[in-house]
Amino acid sequence: MFTEAEIMDLIMTKDSKTEHLVNDIIDKPVEEHKITTKNVNVFYGDFKALKNISMKIRPFSVTALIGPSGCGKSTYLRVFNRMNDYINGFRLEGKVVIDGVNIYKDKIILEKLRKEVGMVFQKPNPFPKSIFDNVAYGLQIQGMKDKHFINERVETSLKKVVLWDEVKDDLKKNALALSGGQQQRLCIARTLAVEPNIILMDEPTSALDPISTGKIEELIFELKNEYTILIVTHNMQQAGRVSDRTAFFYLGELIEEGLTKNIFLNPKEERTENYITGRFG
Amino acid sequence: MNRITLNRIKDKGFLVTGIISTFIGLVLLLIFMADIFIEGAPRISWKFIVSLPSRIPERAGIYTAMMGSVWVLILTTIISFPIGVSAGIYLEEYAKQGRLSRLLEVNISNLAGVPSIIYGLLGLEIFARVMRLGSSVLAGSITLALLILPIIIVATRESIKAVPQSIRDASYALGASKWQTIYRQVLPASFGGILTGVILALSRAVGEAAPLIVVGALAYVPFAPRSPLDDFSILPIQIFNWISRPQHGFIVNAAAAIIILLIITFAMNGIAIYLRSRWQKRVSW
Ligand SMILES: Nc1ncnc2c1ncn2[C@@H]1O[C@H](COP(=O)(O)OP(=O)(O)O)[C@@H](O)[C@H]1O
Ligand SMILES: [Mg+2]
Question: At what angle do helices A131-140 and A180-192 cross, to 10 degrees?
Fold first, then answer.
């Protein structure tokens, strides 16, 4: 967090790079949002999993989605890369706009959308292939043949997730032989390799030990400079550590959304406070 | 007597019954095999394998029947493998919902239980007569391919089903299309299982006599087939023929041929087991 003086300093030296930082800190409305959802309802058959969600997500920020199990966090996350489309009976109403494109209305190609909106899953799910093949996969399916280019991208991606030094001598090794934490970092590298703008993370550390969790949290903090990140987490400390803004969901509704420190220190809604203080979960 | 001791006695009783039942099966099988071995093993020689059929038991060999079996095996594989695997992929990945696919599903499972002689009748009518293939290797192979198709389809589906959803999710989330996901992730991960199923199905096909007898495979052919349209015999039919002869010499020949057929099926099963274990070592989630 920043001191008052630092904030003033940032505001005075207004340039495009720090602007979003300033906006985040003082919760000033921004003009351009990365993602806008408006009156989104999601149904699984007759069951309404998300109720009238409207929310805007700023570029280059980390937004944490919190709330008790079954409140629709994962459903909401999968709205943005349309991974819900595979679920029987899934139906969506409302508007989901990413970079000005309504991804459920306009003619979009799912493969392209997912190149822009990457996803990291709850349980590390590397392919049963080599470390190299895991990271190269996203490029290969796009038809990239240039070996040199692929090699380089694999290296930079693995470096970004701080896995390179651990695996660089053994890129041919099966990814399943890595530890859980390494596997999850590999999965993040694999996502970065296709250069998305947005990264969705669904409880990315819930299957990991504290040390691996710490490494991934640090990583998320770094990645924020280049990507817009949405992260589902059950861990309040984690939400506090990594996110700029937090959205609290309850029974399919978005109860409130705002700067993380506001949500945690003085939530407007009683239900938010009850959840954060652990009165229900 | 209290309840616990009663239960314990029941437990023991069941265990003993189980062991005895298992051993009865095994022992009978062993006796049968020993009998065959004692009778047939001395007859096996290179000459027995490469000799043509003959009226004199000591001169007769299994060459034409074995080559017929090899032809049938190869053609059956070529026909059933691509069709069965494609059908399995289609049913599992593309035709998931709907009445029609459920109907197909039930029917395919039922087909696996249809007596093989029915397939023979079908082969005789459609392939031998309507398609005018006659009693050729090709007609026989198509018939056997049909016979094992349900097994291959079911094995393919089971292996594909065993690939965890998380792998598909990961692939889709990286921007892969459905076909890319199937071709690059699902099939490589399930290929060992598919291959195992195919080999087991083929090892069943190689032992089938009834449907091919109906199609018109001969007990006696003077030469090994040279093309898919030639007449043919196969090992099980040769064995069947020899056993029904009065001379003791032919019974010995039959025993020897059974040993060779057993070796072939055991070898195929061995390969299947090997592939399965290798695949499991490579892919474990
Ligand atoms: N595939 C599905 N089919 C039907 N209902 C589902 C499916 N996935 C989730 N749900 C339901 O939607 C609600 C929200 O689920 P989810 O988004 O997974 O919640 P969360 O991630 O917050 O735990 C839950 O009540 C759940 O039972
Ligand atoms: Mg969830």
Answer: 20
